[in-house]
Amino acid sequence: MTRPVQIPDTLKLTRYQKLPELGPRVLFFSGGSALNGLSRTLKAYTHNSIHLVSAFDSGGSSAVLRKAFDMPAVGDLRSRLMALADETVLGHPEIVRLFSYRLPKEADADSLKHQLNRMEQGKDPLVRCIPNPMRSLICHHLGYFQQAMPDGFDLRGASIGNLILTGGYLNNNRTLDPIIFLFSQLVNVRGTVRAISGDERQLMAELEDGSCVIGQHLLTGKEVAPIRSAIHHLSLVRSQKKPKPAGSKLRKSNRKLLASAELICYPPGSFYSSLVANLLVSGVGEGVADNPCPKIYIPNLGQDPEQFGMTLRQQVDALIAYLQADLAEPVPVSRLLNLVLLDSRYLSGVDETFKAHLDTLGIQLVDMDLTDPAQPEVYDNEKLVSALLSMT
């Protein structure tokens, strides 16, 4: 079945803006920060978006927490919650400020411990301005983190929001969902944010030159030099020290969220560590195939180090292959991917051969103005949100 769609659908978008609490359930598989700007725009149109976020990050302050507590990464979850937080007068900007605050990088260990103690006691100005009972809840989780914090833990540059999430994770039998739910309530998150998996796992990439890279931070090109060989296969392993294959299963709560989506989006961002990483969790491909809603892929406009050597056609094929790998038997591509949405003015590889390949797969190409000429390497958030919501 098909139906005509007008993009942008001004009438539909106006209706969503007037009643965002009744907006569509658009689901994103993502991680990292690439989708945070879009999320801030999105919450003006719908309070029902769903964000399944990879918790396999192994860089920055998340790496320090993972090493200390053998836990999933919480940094990307925190930043997405902040992006979706209510910024109106009905929200809690004082909590957003606290959760976004990072301890100074240049301070000595004793000063940082003293500052953290004052926060846990509710005496620091950032905490003192938060009304009860929210202040007590925050102090409780910070206190739990301090009790569990190992000797020599490096607090320099630590995100207070990450520390609160960690305290809640440890205090709730090492599960993420309860503290993420509490976090969402504290800042009035306009959507649903969940970790795709609560399992402690690392990403392992087998490169075409025969080498292996273990750890998300070694793929992104942000903390170390970019990879110089294309990624042949991505998988989950137990740890960096013990890189044995280790699966992860989609929880029932996330399966229900996936089934409820009115549109599924494979968004721009780090192709392997933010997008494909989510698809490695068992049950994701099956859940996507079982949901009859439209599925849309939006390729990156700028340079993604993880896509070294990849053409646009290879990106589409890889996306489908990882989804199919989760299924007992192959399904028609139409159950996994229906549309590719892009702006070909600033994207190479959108030629007749690519278009013919999409036709063969039964995938529709939607090529339209989605950028600001002043920043052609990124999508314009307003244009992209308008296009996506017009398809719901």
TrEMBL record:
It comes from Marinobacterium alkalitolerans. Pfam families: CofD (PF01933). Transmembrane segments: none annotated. SUPFAM superfamilies: CofD-like. This is GAK system CofD-like protein.
